[in-house]
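S., here's the first fold you wanted:
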Amino acid sequence: DLDKASIAISNFSDIEGRGRILKFNKFGKNFTVIDDSYNANPDSVEASLNSMSFRNSNAGRKVAILGDMLE
């Protein structure tokens, strides 16, 4: 049912640590953080890094933070 699916999707929220995209401005520069930390394992980290390499190749420097550095 298209109406039920539309309602379900409109109420969807990101799962913390599952590809959540955070955007902010600091020191006059725009930053995008992709939080893909939920239940990370070597295969999922590799997939995230590959995904990051394809995102906006003109974005400038890209940094991956691994481990418990954000806690």
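And the second, which I think is the more interesting of the pair:
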Amino acid sequence: MRTHLILSEELLAEIDALVGKRRRSRFVEEAARDKLKRERLLKALRETAGILSAEDYPEWATRESVAAWVHESRERD
């Protein structure tokens, strides 16, 4: 699909210097996909922040207790 984007001259010049004029579209598409992936991840992190309470998981209260929990889990496996 074709679309029209407005980019600053400086940005366009940097893109062209890096990938060349004939690869602009692919570069912009990959950059947009990467940005969308990061934004979806940040959204998921915001939506799930705090769902695990310290009261429900006391073994995760300190770095030391987490390390002990991981060690014990690995020992069982």
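Why I say that: The mean pLDDT is 94. The helical segments are 9-19, 24-48, 63-76.

Talk tomorrow,
H.
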